[in-house]
Prior knowledge:
heterodimer; A: 115 residues; mainly beta; six-stranded mixed sheet; 0% helix; B: 113 residues; 50% strand; globular
Amino acid sequence: xxxxxxxxxxxxxxxxxxxxxxxxxxxxATPYLFWYVQSPGQGLQLLLKYFSGDTLVQGIKGFxxxxxxxxxxxxxxxxxxxxxxxxxxxxxxxxxxxxxxxxVFGAGTILRVKS
Amino acid sequence: DTGVSQNPRxxxxxxxxxxxxxxxxxxxxxxxxxxxxxxxxxxxxxxxxQNEAQLEKSRLLSDRFSAERPKGSFSTLEIQRxxxxxxxxxxxxxxxxxxxxxxxxxxxxxxxT
Lengths: 115, 113
């Protein structure tokens, strides 16, 4: 069955430091991968997506992610974190893209930024 | 603001009462999804519509839950005889034909007391 694992429940980084959030997926077909961010009490905002082509994808707010098929990973990175990046981040895989394309999410990683 | 709106934003109800939530999608987005998110978890798929047709329902969607999307526009999610375990954030997302990304609304936070 398809699943997404985000191994880190919480991560704390200093403002200005680099960030990497890990995501591993399990899906038998070609994965369609997404990263979303959620601020407290809010809905989810799409950061970036990967469907095919270049395995390094750029998103909004200076984020990027790299798809590694051999490792079944899609890690999110940012070279310099800002205090406003503090939020919860969710990795998701799209299932059944030829049909409904429901999303299967990981449990999320809460990012704290210290000044 | 993604353009997907949900009402109400918060709902407190007593166990056993019925509740209804509404989602208004981005115009021309023909696919609409409902997800449920409990504390400390990622969203879980409940059901989805293509236009007015409900094409898939999760096992999570017990017979107390019903969703509609009349005329392929807004959608409603109704929970009958609410239980404390129904307390969660209910998220709506929409998607445009030919594109794979989903755009989420702000959610409806349900608290069952």
